[in-house]
């Protein structure tokens, strides 16, 4: 598999790790980008965007990044916080009165962003038609009772995070999350990132390659399953209508370059500009919750919309923040080292073994930056 792009000599190890992913882990199509102190030092891509059609991966190939979407959504919310339009400690119901139903009147915005609101799952799974329409989703979320006493524990809001934060952005700014992202962050910073991939960009998108998901034997009424699925059937994000919808916990489409540049512009200036000022970023990335996650069942650490690595992660540093996505995608920034990182791929690994692809790339980048 031919590797395209460049890696500066200091970061040759990232190219070697990328080649290793192809040889050892069976990449189909993938890209990695690293920024260092505000400029790109690695930008590599290889393989097939659509192996069935024989369409090659290109530098501008957008890939659905699943939950790596959540970091992008967080930046939209914090931009409103920075402007004084959204108060982290105000109740969600101040901006969205219907959300006060079922005992949720005192849940602050802060608890939603840190997965502590308790509104981690819906009692009734939604159809794909409801998900693409938006209003049925927000009505269901507004009516939902918390699964635990808000503020007393944290548990991954796999889908509801995006719907709640997305509706807050819409209520406060008057724009849907996809439009807000495009107008306030993507266009000003030259980022190929969308929540709601436009029709005229669909032909560029990479095709997800994943084994069928076997739902037999799952207790669809359990809190964990309801949180991690939320829909009556797993969403097929190869479908153009689902890529075009706003599903702001899981369906951002972006290039590796855009993901790395996005995090670089959060952590510091890129071409003389940054997305959030230092004080807003410091508040956004401060730890809010840590310990065993009520949904995932493993230790997690959360800032306000951004994940914080646990010390057992190979690429852990105490100043790093970002978000990973189902199947292997990863974006992060580390202001202390000046690194920003983006990795996207279309092969969803189904093995129970840890997925080393993003980890090996991130560790190589960190070693080169020392």
Automatic annotation (TrEMBL):
It comes from the Bacteria. Its EC number is 3.1.1.103. Coiled coil: none annotated. One of its GO terms (molecular function) is hydrolase activity. The keyword Methyltransferase does not apply. Keywords: Hydrolase. Residues 16-362 form the Beta-lactamase-related domain. This is Serine hydrolase domain-containing protein. It comes from Phytohabitans maris. The lineage of its organism: Bacteria, Bacillati, Actinomycetota, Actinomycetes, Micromonosporales.
């Amino acid at each position: 598999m031919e590797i395209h792009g460049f890696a500066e000599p200091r970061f040759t190890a990232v190219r070697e790790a990328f080649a290793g992913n192809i040889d050892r882990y069976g990449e189909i199509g993938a890209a990695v980008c690293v920024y260092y102190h505000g400029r790109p030092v690695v930008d590599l891509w290889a393989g097939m965007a659509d192996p069935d059609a024989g369409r090659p991966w290109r530098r501008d190939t957008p890939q659905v990044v699943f939950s790596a979407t959540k970091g992008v959504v967080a930046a939209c919310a914090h931009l409103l916080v920075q402007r004084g339009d959204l108060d982290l400690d105000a109740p969600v119901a101040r901006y969205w009165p219907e959300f006060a139903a079922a005992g949720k009147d005192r849940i602050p915005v802060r608890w939603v962003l840190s997965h502590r609101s308790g509104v981690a799952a819906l009692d009734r799974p939604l159809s794909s038609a409801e998900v693409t329409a938006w209003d049925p989703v927000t009505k269901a979320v507004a009516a939902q009772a918390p699964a635990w006493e808000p503020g007393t524990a944290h548990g991954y809001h796999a889908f509801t995070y995006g719907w709640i934060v997305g509706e807050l952005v819409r209520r406060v700014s008057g724009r849907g999350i996809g439009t807000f992202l495009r107008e306030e962050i993507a266009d000003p910073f030259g980022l190929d990132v969308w929540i709601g991939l436009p029709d005229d960009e669909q032909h560029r998108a990479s095709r997800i390659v994943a084994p069928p998901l076997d739902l037999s034997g799952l207790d669809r009424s359990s809190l964990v399953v309801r949180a991690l699925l939320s829909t009556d059937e797993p969403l097929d994000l190869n479908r153009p209508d689902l890529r075009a919808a706003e599903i702001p916990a899981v369906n951002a489409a972006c290039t590796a370059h855009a993901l790395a540049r996005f995090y670089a512009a959060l952590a510091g200036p890129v071409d003389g500009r940054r997305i959030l000022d230092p004080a807003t970023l410091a508040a956004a990335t401060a730890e809010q919750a840590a310990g065993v996650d009520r949904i995932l069942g493993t230790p997690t650490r959360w800032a306000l919309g951004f994940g914080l690595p646990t010390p057992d992660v190979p690429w852990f540093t105490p100043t790093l923040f970002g978000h990973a996505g189902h199947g292997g995608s990863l974006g992060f920034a580390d202001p202390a080292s000046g690194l920003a990182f983006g990795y996207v791929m279309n092969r969803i690994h189904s093995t129970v073994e840890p997925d080393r692809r993003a980890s090996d790339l991130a560790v190589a980048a960190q070693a080169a930056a020392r």
